[in-house]
Amino acid sequence: MPESSQSKEAQSWGEVLTAPCTPALNVLAVLRDGQIPDLLTLEFQRSVLAINASQSPKAKAKITLEITLEKHGRIIGGLVTTAEVKAKLPKEAIPADMLFGDDDGNLLTRHPNQRDMFERPKGV
């Protein structure tokens, strides 16, 4: 099988992964003055509480950590790094109410043309 660009890519990944490198957790610990682990913990807690409080059997939350590395134009080897933690919590459906409109434009809680089967006769 001829050598493909895929095997070259895999080879370059192997070279990168075998080189000494700062562990990712150490990097996370210093981003945004060390706030990233605390922000992730907060979003995990908020997500668990929102899922537990949800009435939906399929409630789910999504936590995203987005890290952007950008080459600094003036400093050799400098990287401008930003980190953002986002959470999408389950949203509960807002309950709807059934109201009826009459011929005069008023909103009613009962259908204007339907009798109330539990209404007592007057005078009783």
- Tell me how many strands there are: 4
Q: How would a crystallographer describe the biggest sheet?
A: 2 strands, antiparallel
Helix content: 25-40%
- The low-pLDDT segments are 1-6
Q: How many distinct helices?
A: 3
Portion of residues in beta strands equals 15-25%
* Average predicted local confidence, pLDDT: 83
- The N- and C-terminal alpha carbons lie at a distance of 96 Å
> Whole-number radius of gyration?
30 Å
Sheet with the most strands: spatial strand order: 1-2
Structure description:
This protein is of the alpha+beta class. It has a domain at 24-94. The protein is 31% helix and 19% strand. It has helices at 5-18, 24-30, 36-53; strands spanning 62-71, 79-88, 100-101, 107-108. Strand 3 and strand 4 (107-108) form a beta hairpin.
Short description:
The chain is an alpha+beta fold and 124 residues long. Helices cover 31% and strands 19% of the residues.
Task: Kindly list the characteristics that best describe this protein.
two-stranded antiparallel sheet; elongated; alpha+beta; 124 residues; disordered N terminus; single chain; 19% strand
SSE topology sketch:
Elements: H1 5-18, H2 24-30, H3 36-53, E1 62-71, E2 79-88, E3 100-101, E4 107-108
Antiparallel strand pairs: 1-2, 3-4
